[in-house]
Amino acid sequence: MKDASARLVASVKERIIVLDGAMGTMIQDYALTESDFRGQEWTDSPVNLKGCNDILCVTRPDVISEIHTAYLDAGARIIETNSFNSNAISLSEYGLQGEAARISLAAARLARDAADRFMQQNPGQEVWVAGSVGPTSKSLSMAQSIGDADTDFDWDVLAAAYFDQMKALIEGGVDLLVIETIFDALNAKAAIFASRRAMEATGVRVPLIISVTLTESGRTLSGQTLEAFVATVAHADPIALGLNCGFGAEGMMPYLESLSRYPFAVSVYPNAGLPNEMGLYDETPQVMAPKVRRMMERGLVNIVGGCCGTTPDHIREFARAAASYRPRPIPHDGGVMTLAGLEPLEVSRERNFLNVGERCNVAGSRKFLRLIKEGSIQEAVDIARSQVGKGAQVIDVNMDDGMLDTPQEMARFISRLGAEPDVARVPVMVDSSSWEAIMSGLKRIQGRPVVNSISLKEGEEAFLAHARDVRDMGAAVVVMAFDENGQAVTFRRRTEVCARAYRLLVDKAGIRPHDIIFDPNVLAVGAVVDSGDGSTDADELMQSRRSALDFLRAVEWIKTNLPGAKVSGGISNLSYAFRANKYVRKAMHSIFLHHAIRLGMDMAIVNAAEAIPVDDIPAPLRE
After folding, report:
1. 302 membership: H or E segment, kind and range
2. What is the dihedral sign for C-alpha 94, 97, 98, 101?
3. How high is the pLDDT of residue 599?
4. Per the omega criterion (within 30 degrees of 0), is the bond before 453 cis?
5. Element (H or E) spanning 269, and its range?
6. What CATH architecture applies to the domain 3-322?
7. pLDDT score of 246
8. Is the pTM of this model over 0.85?
């Protein structure tokens, strides 16, 4: 990380830092013509270029430099590059998709030069350059929900466009990146993923600010609550997370209060009110500044600035106010796993236990398999809806069948789930033995999912590669008690494998302990299981009788010895040898869960519709 970037990380805790205001508003005041936008290079463009503000970094760099300087003189200490739409997808509207990296590089260098000049002229004043990264004009989530067949736009295309933009911004000298005006968290996840790759490619790590735009409903345009959005992007570990654009400073206040508990600095840069019938913004600096001041008085912000309609005069008033207030104290990370669909789901002892619906699994439900093979996707989605209606808090999706194109079916079904708000509100568990299928699913989930699963079966290198993919895609992860020697069956092997995996995930893959879910193997009672350790048949028969008890002991050991880790399991495996007697199976599951939950089990893959209260099981069978 650059020294300047490291100082910014420290500074947000020490004072309120002022961000600049709108770029577009200022450009409008120059009354530029089509020829200004075309310059000498694009005189023959078949498309009108007026309105493509980013291209001015190449054709009228003097204008952009003046605007940067005006904001610095007004008191801004972070200035954003004029690169909001400098990506191939947005620029394609002007036939300029091939110029994205060039324009981004020019934008970064203009802002860098302005910042360096200012610091030379004002010794002791440090300013930072933020690479502006907009949301593009398209939405991954909404394209999927309407079945958009635009083959030129998917996760990979979007991530590649963001990578080219961010790499050029970093090469141009920015101190941080601002992923802003986010209306779809799936787009934001693609941007976060691309930012990691751009930092790896340049060898330079820069902090991120992540800024979302809410509708008047308090949700993003693609339907997420603010709390679900935070859970979805928290894996980026941003220097600040906040709000911009939207409906003005006054309307943002309740949402700033909602952000106060999260372990990030809070940024806010509102519009100058709502646009009038002419599309202009009427709030003067004198009207807007008191509203922003109230945010500071209440200790809600670390970074403040302006969005649409704001000018250097607005920023000057904000800077005067900021000098009088302390920044919001940044709380410590509470170490709670939070998953998300359209709504958040905390996994904690206070919640007690999570039911993961098991019926959207082609290996576990003949009906679901038939519907998928027939292409009856809506009826398959209805199974998920029924599971949610009967208490499932997470939906497990598995398409592992030799007759299916597993990655394609995973993508198709998860995309369809995301279009059904009553189902999409809960998180998804992407369950497959195919890593291609898992990645295919992750690229289509707007919220924060769970990957089921990874293991040490193929050795440490493959294990860590998969773990880093999970981290970069923003998911939690289930880890099977399985290593190079096979499935862990005994208590000793279960705990040894889980302990080794935990250390690798935390120390080498950068996975937070509370995002790890161990599955210590729920094995069938009454069926001999090969332990893989050379035991005799008699030993293995004896071990099979202890298998469920050893699982329970392993749950207690993990919760005691691997801080933060969660425990899950596939409960239907337990009673597989008794599959001719449905009631006995249900009773076994209920008794087993009763003990497992008491010992600390956090979740399980179950059929939520078939749970039997323990007290309703006849006493002899219960015993």
Report:
1. none
2. positive
3. 95
4. yes
5. strand 265-270
6. Alpha-Beta Barrel (3.20)
7. 85
8. yes
